[in-house]
Amino acid sequence: MGLKPRIETAFERLLFQSRWLMAPFYVGLALALAMLLAVFVAELFYYVPQAFVIGERMDSNDAILAVLTLVDLSLAGNLLLIVMFSGYENFVSKLDLDGETDRPPWMGTVDFSGLKMKLIASIVAISGIQLLKVFMNIGKPGYPLDEAAMMWGVIIHLTFVVSGVLLALMDWLTAKTDKH
């Protein structure tokens, strides 16, 4: 065995082991999930008492907006979980969870293409909720109608939708072509 194969082998092992440099990113995402939980709980404690106050309690639109805010945070948390689990399993190491009965069925089966589609679908859902919240505030006191902001909100949301459709189309076309 010559010098070149040893150097090449050592280099390839180094490259392969460098995947572990991604592990701190996933720890950071777990901390971000804890941060989202803190915001969720704070929002919940803010809105729940308003629902039961006699006199000036929240109306149905305010209740819907509160629920949409909580759903929005939940979707962001789900997105973080998907990115953490799928990213770790696709790029770092398989999660060794033999015997774990609560393992979600999608774990270990979401490849990069599936991760990309779940990511864009979550972004579209979050964007749609944000846009709906803006529309539900139209005409409320203290919420001036900002047509430019609304226009840009719709444009950005439609951009996310079109991006998702194009990504799905690219994945579909890639699946239809013969591998080289």
From TrEMBL:
The chain crosses the membrane at residues 21-48, 63-85, 119-138, 150-173. One of its GO terms (cellular component) is plasma membrane. It comes from the Bacteria. Keywords: Cell membrane, Membrane, Transmembrane, Transmembrane helix. It is a multi-pass membrane protein. It is found in: Cell membrane. InterPro entries: UPF0114, UPF0114_bac. Belongs to the UPF0114 family. This is UPF0114 protein Bresu_0490. It comes from Brevundimonas subvibrioides (strain ATCC 15264 / DSM 4735 / LMG 14903 / NBRC 16000 / CB 81).
